[in-house]
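Protocol step 4 of 5: obtain the predicted structure for the target chain.
Materials: sequence only (see below). No template structures provided, no constraints applied. The aim of this step is simply to have a reference model before the mutagenesis design in step 5. Sequence pasted as it appears in the construct record:
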Amino acid sequence: MTALRSKNKFIKFFIIPFIFTIFPSVIASIDREIAEFCLKAEDFSGCVEQMSEKTPSQSNNSDLKTVNKNKKNKSDLFNKASSTYLIENNYLSAINYLDDLIRSNSKDSDAFFIRGIIKFLEMQDYQNALLDIQKSIELDAQDSAKYMSLGYVKYIYFEEHEAGLEDLNKALSLDPENSLAYLFRGKVNSYISDKYVEKSDYKKVAQYLNASISDYSKSLEHYTDDFNPYFKRLYPFGYLNQIYGSRGRQYYNLGIFYKSVKEIKNRDLSKSSLNASLSDFDEMINIAPTIADVENLNNPTKMLEKDFVKVSAATWKGDTYSHLKKWGSACRNWKKAYKTWNKSDYDVISTYKSLEDGFIMYETNCL
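Step 4 output (structure tokens):
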């Protein structure tokens, strides 16, 4: 009993004041007695939420058991959903577990978030994915990954580039080292630059291309293989190829604009940008997955239906060398890409305009 009284005294006189001092904005509205009571629970926030509907005098040990049981049920269902999806590749059963979890606790932000990710990755149910991720942010507005995912869905599937950019900016304000958010923001800036091409505002084009390149460089700076396991379904080999390929293409585009557009023409900047693109395409080739790697995927994503990383990098190198007027190097790279690709995959190539254009350039200039 003495030890128990000492523990309670320690909680009352040391822990409670500490919490109110360090986290005033988080629990400013929490009754002091509720906070003291909920420190005995396994789930402090869940306890506070449940106890807020009662007066402290109405709280008892059965309430603690309920809070702890709810936490255990959440953990069990969430773990089942995760393992079923990530290990067993069964996204429908994972969705069912998350549905059960949300029915038992409609304020579980993570359940909405993961359900939203699965909906857009596996089910192409983009509208409901958007709603789920928005709901998860409504319940928890301090998670960088959630804003990043919302921005991704908006710009990829709804072409809401400016709105997606706002969400990605928010994600990076919450976590300035969020590598994937930089990658996605780089892509959005690239899309926005295309709009200014249509308006012939080439100074803006250069501005957004440089912003895009900066974002890809930041993504590379903060890159880690230990990223969100759900997004590993999108990038099963990591996304270094995405960074190098995307940044290389923007260097290439910038080099072309500096070479040919009167308003921003600059021979030195053009040459340095084109050479920078070659370096990125070389890195892309060095770390590309093999055809066997792709074929051995249990659940390949749409972005990796075929292994065209090396083919696309070689094609883009050919394009770059042609603008540097190094036609021997251009033809060697175009030829390498041309011979590597299986003719039966022509329909896939035609989906990617830059690859098809590269092969036409090879046939026109090198054969």
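Step 4 remarks: The chain has three domains: 2-57, 88-178, 209-367. Residues 61-86 form the longest helix (26 residues).
Proceed to step 5.
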